[in-house]
Amino acid sequence: MIPLIKKLKHLRTTILEYAQVKMTPGSWPDELTQDHKFVEDLEARLMMRKHPDSRARQFSTGEMKECNRLYKKYRDVYDGRLSKKEQMNIEMKMHEHIEEFLIMGQKINAIKEYRMTMEKLTKIVPGLRESKDYVDEIQSELKKTGKRFNVR
């Protein structure tokens, strides 16, 4: 694969990951939508160029600067530079998802949710014991509140 196309795919993935972590589904701001469209259009344009000459598959200086600006803007997701508020939002969503899984009787999915979210936040996958203990704690809290569970 051509290195520029590979970098563009990484940038597109970075923007999508950013949107997944920091935005509510279906509510992308116009700026994020425009940035994603710019990258997609640039990628499509590079893919359509049929010239074997490598210079035909290069960015202009302006396009390269814009890609660098976008990567710096959205790379927080990969670099783990989330604000405390963003971390708390992610943890709250995780907690809600775990509760939903437990109410539906899907404890294994609740444990998977905990492990995946913690990996995003800390770059470390927690062990099964730690994950199960966390989920068990939430389950006992739910039982105290009188929530009903589907038992499988």
Q: Largest beta sheet, briefly?
A: none
Indicate the radius of gyration in whole angstroms: 21 Å
Q: Spans of 5+ residues with little confidence (pLDDT < 50)?
A: none
What structural class results from the helix and strand content?
A: mainly alpha
In short:
The chain has two domains: 3-79, no CATH class; 84-145, no CATH class. 73% of the residues lie in helices and 0% in strands. The protein has helices spanning 3-22, 30-48, 61-74, 76-79, 84-103, 107-122, 128-145.
Q: Would you write up a description of this structure?
A:
The chain is an all-alpha fold. It folds into two domains: 3-79, no CATH class; 84-145, no CATH class. It has seven helices and no strands. α5 runs antiparallel to α6 and α5 (84-103) crosses α7 (128-145). It is elongated. The mean pLDDT is 82.
Helix and strand layout, with pairings?
Blueprint: H1 3-22, H2 30-48, H3 61-74, H4 76-79, H5 84-103, H6 107-122, H7 128-145
Which characteristics define this entry?
single chain; 152 residues; 2 domains; 73% helix
